[in-house]
Amino acid sequence: MSRPEPLPRTARLLLLARVVNRLGAFSLPFLTALISTDHGANLTAAGLVSAAFGLATIPSRLAGGHLADRIGRRTTIVLGLCGCAAAQLAIAASASLTWAVAGAVLLGLAFELYEPPSQAIIGESVPEQHRVRAFSLFSAALAAGGMGAGLLAALLGRWDLRWLFVTDAATCLACALLIRLALPRDRPEQPGANQESTAVRPLRDRALLSVLATGTAYALINQQTVITLPLALTRQGLPAADAGLLFTAAAATTVLAQPLIRLRCATRLTTPVALALAHLLLAAGLTGYALTRTLPALLASAAVMSLGDLLVMGRIYALVTDLAPPGASGRYLAVFGTSWGIAATLAPVLGTQLLAHAGTTALWSAMAAFCLLLAALHLRVTPGSARSPQRRAPRKRRSIKPVAPPGLRR
Question: What is the pTM of this model?
Fold first, then answer.
């Protein structure tokens, strides 16, 4: 295993900033628990509030891609982080269910603004052959902050759930300051400077739509393990705050398993095969959630699932960046990112209903079966490469001229 090439300075600074942000990003999984315990809402109402948050993230993600091209990536990231901080503080200070719902919707509208510009910076500043590793490191950077986040969640959650949102707001502001001071100022293209690139329509790209469909299914499973886990633990007689320990185990696995991504046997896997293997690992971990009731066994299951997540996150964003025509990666990543908003809308409703009517074993067993189905589906429908002749022809007909990505010209 050869020594990897260092990432560009811009990418390294972005990774550091997101570690700071991730250190406090543990409040969202406890939104339903806060609404249930502090505001007396039942499971159905709590699920609907989380669904409202998820629905609001869809226009947030699309707006993030649009704003990144219009006002600049650094400015968009800072705007999104500050908006998240304001919403987190509103939720922490909410005196009624109405104010908590308003804070959750505001959080959703700001929550995804910074993702498309962040991912576009990573994808466009790193050579194509290193994108899988770069996105894996991006996932590991978030996980590194997540290790501390999980421990803080386990500590603060036993004291008062509202302090989770206050701490999250503080780290959002710290990350915004670091981004503002450390990242170079970007210069977005002026309207009309590249009219040909504006004709790109991601929703007409069949390969992207295929990846969007399977990505939404994966995101739905992922969100179940984030949003529903604290409630599921209470059903099993464990403290909801123990979810923080499971998140920490998953984050530690993501960081420690990074060398596996660079092994020759892993790099030689095609994208469909890698994603199928990832979903088999997810199915194994979810089966552990369904069958075990002790904390050590749940921690082991979380670690297995994290290996699957690591394979998915590295491959999927590199594939979407590769599918995008030159100059359009931000819009492609924004469209693909709506999968998380769709999943965040559906996951709380489906998860709370399954918990209420069938229990934790049925919930996790259903998700494991869904993963097996997705593993088979990836082998059939996921594009293996965006550089095949079939992919090149549409780009030639659209006459997209290569342009340097805005904000990263040297």
Answer: 0.72
